[in-house]
Amino acid sequence: MGRLDILEDGAVAISNGKIISVAKSNAILDNYDAPERIDATGKTVTPGLIDAHTHFVFAGSRETELELKIQGMKYLEILAKGGGILRTVRDTRKASKNELLDVCRSRAHNLLKHGTTTIEAKSGYGLELPTEIKSLEVINSLNEEGPLSLTPTFLGAHAIPQEFEGKVAEYVSLVSEDWIPRIQQLRLAAFCDVFCEKGVFEIEDSKKILLAGKAHGLMPRIHADELSPLGGAELASELGAASADHLLYASEVGMERMKEAGVIATLLPAAPLTLMLGKYANARKFIEIGVPLALGSDLSPSCLLENYQLVIALACYEMRMTPAEAFTAATINAAHSIKKADRIGSIERGKIADIVIFDVSDYRFLGYQLGSNAADVVIKNGKVAVREGRLE
Ligand SMILES: [Zn+2]
């Protein structure tokens, strides 16, 4: 993860949305005559950034909860009071599909402007079938519309809806036996995810849902060991999940199993930052054990982060990843986390031309600088999508 393949004075030739050659500038200029040339002298050209964990589809916002967090109220306490996710659930249920599309489209544009070209996008603010379907339809529509690519994940088990308070088993059965087959029938999702946590969906519940997903062709990924050591990393390994995410409390045994099972660890440093946990996932331990790390923003109403460059910086400053490791995690490893590494995540011949030109002289600036937007030109599917920070 710490070794980047950097080509100084390089150039990229693109045709029909694909990368057709990567070589020294002279060689490219001698061999290709392109209708458009973009000069990136003095700048840094990278693969489009890939965000492997977002709660992208939601209506409303939760700025009023910041004060509660500052006063020390815990996430699960806010949830127990009908705030947190449950508030967003009310707002998202109320929004029409078109309203939700509009909100999400402008969100997609903001991500693109900051250099993100592909995201994993979860449902999970419906907690009832019609709104879960509406959310996944929004993801699929925006993916078709472009330019941002979205990979849809069904997260019906994001929280226990108020209607099912005290009836977790009933809800788990409903999700597994009724909703998942329906989602699959409609071809709305690639992955199935669960918020596996003490007092929410515990190990057996999570297993039941993820196995049902797997049986219906939805690859498992999981919110694991975020707030307590529950054994989510072990479960992810047992199920052969594509990714286990958060992992602040993952056990060493769990990490070892993830390595053996080839499960990617998707770390989300902005989540503990905005939850004010004062603790981060042990990235160095994962790297030492040899588990591949990916990154994600955890974009949600609780973590309103649209500049993915900041996640790279947080990975460096808070999790002690080197800029090169963070870069690998935000590109090719994030592509592996969403099973798209054969098409995106690196600048290689044959891959889709998703490329960012950052207005910095060295890639390390992305780990080093905080919150500024260095994305100058964003190329998606071989076309310029953003120029000088503005959508084309
Ligand atoms: Zn999440």
Write the layout of secondary structure elements.
Layout: E1 10-15, E2 18-24, H1 25-31, E3 44-47, E4 49-54, H2 65-70, H3 75-80, H4 85-94, H5 97-113, E5 116-122, H6 129-145, E6 149-157, H7 168-185, E7 191-195, H8 203-215, E8 219-224, H9 232-239, E9 243-246, H10 252-261, E10 264-267, H11 270-275, H12 283-289, E11 293-295, H13 308-319, H14 323-330, H15 332-337, E12 355-358, H16 365-368, E13 375-380, E14 383-387, E15 390-391
Parallel strand pairs: 4-5, 5-6, 6-7, 7-8, 8-9, 9-10, 10-11
Antiparallel strand pairs: 1-2, 3-12, 12-13, 13-14, 14-15
Helix pairs in contact: 5-6, 7-8, 9-10, 13-14
Could you explain the architecture of this structure?
By secondary structure, the chain is of the alpha/beta class. The protein contains 16 helices and 15 strands. Strands 4-5-6-7-8-9-10-11 form an eight-stranded parallel β-sheet. A five-stranded antiparallel β-sheet has the order 3-12-13-14-15, with helices on one face. It has a two-stranded antiparallel sheet with strand order 1-2. The longest helix has 18 residues, at 168-185. It is globular and about 70 Å long. The site of zinc ion (ZN) has 4 residues, from loops. The site of zinc ion has 4 residues, from loops.
